[in-house]
Amino acid sequence: MRIQRLTRMAVAAAMGFASLCSASLLAEKKPKEAPSAVSAAPPATSPAIPDLEFITRLRQEEFEHSQVMDIMSHLTDDIGARLTGSPNMKKANEWTRDQFTQWGMVNAHLEPWGTFGRGWAYQLCEVRMVAPDYMQFMAYPEAWTPGTNGSLRAEVVRVIASTSADLEKYKGKLAGKIVLFGETRIPDPSDKPLFHRNDDDDLAKTALFEPPSFPGAQQRPGGPGNARAELIQRLRFQQELPKFLEDEKVAAVLDITRLPGEDGTLFVQSGGNYEKGKTITVPRVTVAVENFGRVARLIDKKIPVEVEMNVETAFYDDDDKAYNTLAEIPGTDPNLKDQVVMLGGHLDSWHAGEGATDNGAGSAVAMESVRLLEKLGVQPRRTIRIVLWSGEEEGLFGSRGYVKEHFGSRPESSRGENQFLPAFMRPPAGPLELKPEQKTISVYFNLDNGAGKIRGIYLQENARVRPIFEKWMEPFRDLGMTTLTMRDTGSTDHVSFDAVGIPAFEFLQDPLDYGTLTHHSNLDVYEHIRPEDLEQASVIMAGFVYDAAMCDEMIPRKPIRPDDAPVTPRQ
What we know:
single chain; alpha/beta; Aminopeptidase; Glucose Oxidase, domain 1; 8-stranded mixed beta sheet; disordered N terminus
């Protein structure tokens, strides 16, 4: 059925139901006009042939004079990890802004997207077992947790709990103790390679459409609603646990690294709250599965274990806002220069590594793309705008805040269990409310699936762009870009644009070792970047941005459901 559905959509597109750059249905809808049950098909046009002379110059410039790895090195080596609100994130914002200005772009600036909270960074993390034996641990503090105020030595006790009811049996037993929290895990044998490139079979499978599945879907037996209920339960417990630990006067917590962490790979994220007034008082540290397992086995055999810890962290409260970096190449066509083609990636990262593959790679490619366009002296008909986001790792905050400020939003339900969900996962509590500027954005291109080559693009169920992107992809087939898929993909910043009716797309990339080793881990470092992959991605991203900025009309938009018509844009 999926193959038949995809084929019908492709045939419809080829017959003209998708136009090259037709005006959006959303923009054509008059304020307060009642939506019709069936939207009329846009007039058919022929996809334009890409400017092959420009593509040739673009490829030559990148493959012979690339600077993408210089950008990459500055982000990872010179600046390092870029946790939202941290001093390193401030450095990254300011350096990228100044770099855009140096390249000749205009309107380079930092733009706050709203109140974030406390900045945080760590300077030291030493954890070791000192009884019944000595053993150095691999360990990293979890973001927004306090330090130990010097060396701390205490007995370790195990706590296994997933609900508030589970915690009841530990009341009154944890004061002054270091808590080993969670279940042990024996790593599975590594029977698959940790590094992978997509082959033809992988790409063919990805090209087949699958209905989207997401935590906010409605509850139904065996469906994604079950995952949503489980997610809410986990998030609710995670919000209740810190108060229990504080009330019990726990000295510190040792958490096991999440899957697939093993062999010294640690996946480390947040253990505290970045909002002012909600900082937790108990240090939390993620440790390697092997260290966690040894301590757990000793305790289970009734052998007392003592651990010594010294963790230094710092909070920064001088500025509770967080910022995106923006810059533009101005449009030159008097009739089109007020329209905008956007590209970007998120600049923020977690703190155990260097933020190389997530998402220094996407940021570096987006930066290299606009550098190439400036270097080649393009005179785009539409304005080209790059945005490097912050707050992505905490919930797409940077892109969501920007979209809400400039283009529109819909009210989010925070009632009942929805209060435990991140804002971007909450179901809508009303129709879209759009602003006039929403009509001026032609398209947004995002890169945030690691550091692999671009192999295609997710169409976000927008059949009307298929014939356009088929043509634009053609000059890059020899570089490995061969696949268009109608699938949605989520969990990154293009979703914020898609949610308000703006065409927004994420590129499909080779996975490499992103999911197995580097994503949110201590191995998210420069050494896991392949220069040839970033060079290829820079050429393709720049090519798509150029094509979108030069074509006669805006990128076609998905139709708005008749029962979800936007309210009148605010003037």
